[in-house]
């Protein structure tokens, strides 16, 4: 929350600085910023991850129904490398570190220790994006962005022999996504500041199924789940 307040304060200061220059003949900041072939920067931000479940079967009256997901706010930090293609298109590589936590509530368990699983994930997230911008309007320029990405989950328990029966919720190490978003470039006196928001949607299943039970009466947390996909919202504040 402290990081969020700081980021929003920086964003408001940027808006005030740019708003002061909205007149018929604004003084242009960083006039040659978009003429460079290569551009570098960094970003700070926050995220909210979720899960989308595909079930083997769905019966509202059954013992096992939908898994509930409790979401929280995580944070992001990373670097930016940008290749200019022309006045309107850029290719961007944005490797970053993303931390998040999701709490899963499995129905049908009377014991809270069995019903709730905390899923903490630390991702190395690497998107390859195409940025499409409008013509520069004074000291700001709207854009949309989209592309594909992959992530490596540093918190993955994919190779663990333990499963939910011992409190270990297992997820795969690698996931692939597609991303779509939009934002605005603000040309300030010393740097370009760009707030943006992106939706991120997994293309590959992230769930590692529980081990087969040798006892028919033993609970199985994942038996009714066919696939599990991460999805999320990223809000980043870029400085270039």
Please provide a brief summary of the model.
This protein has 240 residues and is mostly beta strands. The chain has helices at 2-19, 112-115; strands at 38-55, 68-71, 74-84, 89-93, 96-105, 116-133, 140-153, 174-187, 192-202, 225-239.
Describe this structure in words.
By secondary structure, the protein is mainly beta. The protein has a single domain, classed as Porin (Beta Barrel), CATH 2.40.160. The chain contains 2 helices and 10 strands; from the N terminus they run H-E-E-E-E-E-H-E-E-E-E-E. A hairpin with a 4-residue loop joins strand 8 and strand 9. The protein is elongated, with a radius of gyration of 22 Å. The chain starts with a helix and ends with a strand.
List segments where confidence is low: pLDDT < 50 over at least 5 consecutive residues.
Answer: none
Nearest-angstrom radius of gyration?
22 Å
Q: What is the count of helical runs? A: 2
Report the major sheet. Answer: 10 strands, antiparallel
Q: What is the overall silhouette? A: elongated
Classify the beta-strand content into a percent band. over 45%
Total number of distinct structural domains: 1
CATH topology: Porin
Structure summary, number of beta strands: 10
Which CATH class is shown? Mainly Beta
The string of secondary-structure elements, in order, is HEEEEEHEEEEE
Mean pLDDT: 86
The helicity comes to under 10%
Gap from first CA to last CA: 24 Å
């Amino acid at each position: 929350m402290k990081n969020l307040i700081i980021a929003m304060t920086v964003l408001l200061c940027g808006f005030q600085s740019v708003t002061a220059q909205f007149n018929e003949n604004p003084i242009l900041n960083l006039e040659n910023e978009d003429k460079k072939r290569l551009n570098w920067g960094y970003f700070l931000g926050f995220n909210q991850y979720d899960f989308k479940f595909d079930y083997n079967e769905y019966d509202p009256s059954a013992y096992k129904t939908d898994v509930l997901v409790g979401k929280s706010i995580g944070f992001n930090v990373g670097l930016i490398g940008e290749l200019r293609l022309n006045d309107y298109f850029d290719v961007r590589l944005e490797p970053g570190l993303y931390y998040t936590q999701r709490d899963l509530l499995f129905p049908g368990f009377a014991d809270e220790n069995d019903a709730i699983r905390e899923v903490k994930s630390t991702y190395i997230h690497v998107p390859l994006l195409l940025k499409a911008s409008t013509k520069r309007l004074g000291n700001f320029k709207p854009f949309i962005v989209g592309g594909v990405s992959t992530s490596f989950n540093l918190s993955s328990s994919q190779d663990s022999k333990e499963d939910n029966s011992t409190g270990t919720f297992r997820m795969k190490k690698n996931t692939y996504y597609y991303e779509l978003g939009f934002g605005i470039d603000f040309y300030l006196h010393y740097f370009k500041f760009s707030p943006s928001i992106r939706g991120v949607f997994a293309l590959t299943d992230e769930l590692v199924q529980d081990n087969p039970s040798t006892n028919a009466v033993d609970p199985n947390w994942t038996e009714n789940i066919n696939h599990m996909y991460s999805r999320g919202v990223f809000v980043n504040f870029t400085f270039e």
